[in-house]
TrEMBL record:
The gene is Mettl7a_0. GO terms for molecular function: S-adenosylmethionine-dependent methyltransferase activity. Residues 77-174 form the Methyltransferase type domain. It comes from the Eukaryota. Signal peptide: none annotated. It holds the Pfam family Methyltransf_11. The chain crosses the membrane at residues 7-29. The keyword Repressor does not apply. This is MET7A protein. Coiled coil: none annotated. Keywords: Membrane, Transmembrane, Transmembrane helix.
């Protein structure tokens, strides 16, 4: 019965979003989304999300300097850099390599770089999280991934790549929205919105239980918390935050 209700409500949401589905059918939506809509939306969401999670991010990245290499350098790789919403939380002098599959966020990224001259920007790599072959194995002290694992094609492959590029003792930092408790109304509505949300927001999946992927990955230590981020009218309130050590 519940599944039938979900399917009915999904159909209602599809009807409401019919113009988007029509554009998708005509092959117009995807290029428009990647080039114009999603970069615009992402930059604004990033600002709101950053305000809502500022204290959590400050606490999350507080121990980032502890993972400096024996030479004293701190090399950070950020997967899915987007508009650079994490830069202000990185310690001075760290060397950051940015990666993303979408190069249309460059204007927002440049603005963030200009606002945060305290860090050194090494290079920008156009690559998905599942394939970071341009980054040598064991070359990074830390890997950062925030609001990205919801939309990668394969979470496990992305975590495997993060482990590969990390040096032994390096850390993987994460802050991701995840599926709500399966018995909750929030999860019910996540299921209702899932197909249309994924289409409109460039592959973003609402019901991924990413904490399970992290717990099953081959990290030696996982420090993980479930938190709620108050984002009105959006089905992405449940989050996980923490770091895992190689």
């Amino acid at each position: 019965m519940t599944q039938a209700v979900i399917l009915f409500l999904r159909a209602c949401v599809v009807l409401l979003a019919m113009p988007v589905y029509l554009l998708w059918f005509l092959g117009i939506w995807e290029p428009f989304c990647k080039k114009i809509f999603f970069p615009f939306f992402l930059e604004r969401l990033s600002e709101v999300h950053k305000r809502k999670t500022k204290k959590q991010k400050q606490e999350l990245f507080r121990n980032l300097p502890d993972f400096k290499s024996p030479s004293g350098e701190l090399k950070v790789l950020e997967i899915g850099t987007g508009c650079g919403a994490n830069f202000e939380f990185y310690p001075p002098g760290c060397k950051v390599t940015c990666t993303d599959v979408n190069t249309n966020c460059q204007q927002g990224l440049s603005r963030s770089m200009n606002k945060n001259p305290h860090i050194h920007y090494e290079r920008f790599i156009v690559a998905p999280g599942e394939d970071l072959h341009q980054v040598p194995s064991g070359s990074m002290d830390a890997v950062v991934c925030t609001l990205v694992l919801c939309s990668v094609h394969n979470v496990n492959s992305t975590l495997k790549e993060a482990l590969r590029v990390l040096r032994p003792g390096g850390a993987f930092y994460f802050l991701e929205h995840v599926a709500a408790d399966r018995s909750s109304w929030k999860y019910f509505w996540q299921q209702v919105y899932y197909p249309t949300w994924k289409l409109i927001f460039d592959g973003c999946c609402l019901t991924r239980e990413i904490w399970k992927n992290l717990e099953q990955a081959k990290f030696s230590e996982v420090n993980l918390q479930h938190i709620k981020v108050d984002l009105p009218l959006m089905p992405i309130e449940p989050h996980i935050i923490g770091y895992a050590v190689k």
